[in-house]
Fold this protein.
Amino acid sequence: MAREAGLGDLHTQMKITNKLLAAQLKDKMQQRELIKLLMTTGASDQELADVLGTTAATVSVTKVRLRKEDANKGNKAGQKPAEERHGRVRACTEGYQCNSNAS
């Protein structure tokens, strides 16, 4: 008699499949590129780390660095970062006290 697959079994099979797919991609992509790809899935840092065979701290630091790079990528040469260009406006719209005499 065949045993029915429960949620636990399906979850285990999914984890194995993910690890096999990640193993194939590790040869073709750098860890940083894999994290960039996988961070859009909504998985936790620990879940990504488990799939990639690294630590959650490594995933977290890499994600922060990728976000910073993306934020600065849009800046043209000689242009201030977005935070400096729009900091006062952003602060005022987010409910912080604004000094109208500040430039």
Remarks:
- The two ends are 77 Å apart (CA to CA).
- The chain has five helices and no strands.
- Residues 12-72+82-93 form one domain.
- The mean pLDDT is 77.
